[in-house]
Write a structure and sequence with these properties.
The protein is an alpha/beta fold. The protein is 39% helix and 18% strand. The chain is built from 10 helices and 13 strands. The strands form 4 sheets. It has a 7-stranded parallel β-sheet, sandwiched between helices. A two-stranded parallel ribbon has the order 7-10. Strands 8-13 form a two-stranded parallel ribbon. It binds NADP nicotinamide-adenine-dinucleotide phosphate. NADP nicotinamide-adenine-dinucleotide phosphate binds next to helix 1.
């Protein structure tokens, strides 16, 4: 049994991970910005849900003291003007502060959630900041053994992929104009992601590694959206947009409330999210999709 502190443990991946860790008998502390909003996690008797500002170094140092493992799942897809919601602060600076806090207490292990396609030369600020966060952790790891995970799109109940596209498809009258239709993905099941993370906790072979996580099937974005529409019994014609129109769409949607698609998302979508050299995770998308959409 280990004492594990999870940042971002209240999110889609975090809730599944925390559930698994508690079931395995670990003592888990989750740091959150808003404890009240996530009080459903309090059903776990051994879970300690702590409200704090993870961007304050003093809070980090205080709350990770005595931990065996730190898991950082904090991530954003879109920036806002608030300082603590920029890619730089949320991904890079947080990783740096976390590593420095780990040094203060000689924390032996840290798992980081990155993203497939993370690249310091990427055009997308999201992918670039994910790569820089990862690099900062590896570069200054010291006694802390770091493993980083790079998943493709993650699916499962409560995800951001199927939920968001199903909602958008329902809103579309008949045609669904789709930007970047040919970008390829290998969606990976959240349960498989969590299994790989838990298996790595004591696995020395994963130390200092960046591990790509993909599912067994590859889809273009258009195939994925058509599959979601068909499974949800929505008669929508997905209309693939040209590169120019895809860019225009991102420019426009980045300015509407809720920002369904931004220019930075558009740049991320210029890179395929597949991992031909990695062992695929086992769970197929389609049965899970059917189960999720049939419930609605
Ligand atoms: N979902 C995917 O398809 C996917 C694919 C590739 C990589 N990833 C990466 O996997 C990680 C987990 O993804 P997810 O889908 O579970 O994300 P999520 O549901 O959005 O959860 C992220 C969590 O991070 C915390 N957080 C968000 N913004 C923050 C900020 N500015 N400062 C401090 N904390 C903040 C939130 O916790 P509180 O509100 O409790 O503070 C939230 O519960 C992320 O790093 C993401 O980039 C996800």
């Amino acid at each position: 049994m280990a004492r594990i502190c999870v940042l971002g443990g209240t999110g889609f991946v975090g809730q599944v991970l925390v559930n698994r860790l508690v079931t395995q008998g670990h003592q888990v502390r989750v740091l959150t910005r808003e404890r009240f909003r996530h009080r459903s996690l309090l059903v776990f008797p051994t879970l300690d849900l702590v409200q704090t500002n993870v961007h304050k170094e003093r809070s980090l140092v205080r709350h990770i003291e005595g931990m065996d493992v730190i898991i950082n799942l904090v991530g954003i897809l879109n920036e806002s003007r608030v300082r603590q919601k920029t890619f730089k602060e949320t991904h890079i600076r947080l990783a740096q502060k976390l590593m420095s806090a780990c040094h203060t207490h000689d924390i032996p292990r840290l798992l980081q959630m990155s993203a497939l396609g993370a690249d310091r030369n990427a055009r997308s600020n999201y992918l670039r900041s994910k790569a820089e966060a990862e690099a900062a952790l590896f570069q200054f790891s010291g006694v802390t053994k770091v493993t980083s995970f790079r998943p493709s799109l993650i699916f499962g109940p409560g995800d951001h992929l199927i939920g968001r596209f199903t909602a958008l498809l329902r809103l579309a009258p008949y045609f669904f104009p789709l930007g970047c239709p040919n970008t390829r993905f290998a969606p990976v099941y959240v349960g498989d992601v969590v299994t790989r993370m838990c298996d790595s906790l004591n696995d020395r072979q994963t130390y200092s590694q960046s591990i790509s996580l993909c599912g067994p099937d590859v889809y273009t974005l258009q195939e994925l959206i058509e599959l979601i529409a068909a499974t949800a019994s929505l008669k929508r014609r997905v209309v693939p947009l040209s590169p120019f129109m895809s860019r225009m769409q991102a420019r426009i949607l980045g300015r509407v409330p809720g920002k369904p698609l931004t220019m930075d998302n558009y740049y991320s979508l210029q890179v395929d999210s597949v991992c031909p050299d990695a062992d695929p995770c086992p769970t197929h998308l389609e049965p899970v999709l059917r189960e999720m959409l049939e419930k609605n």
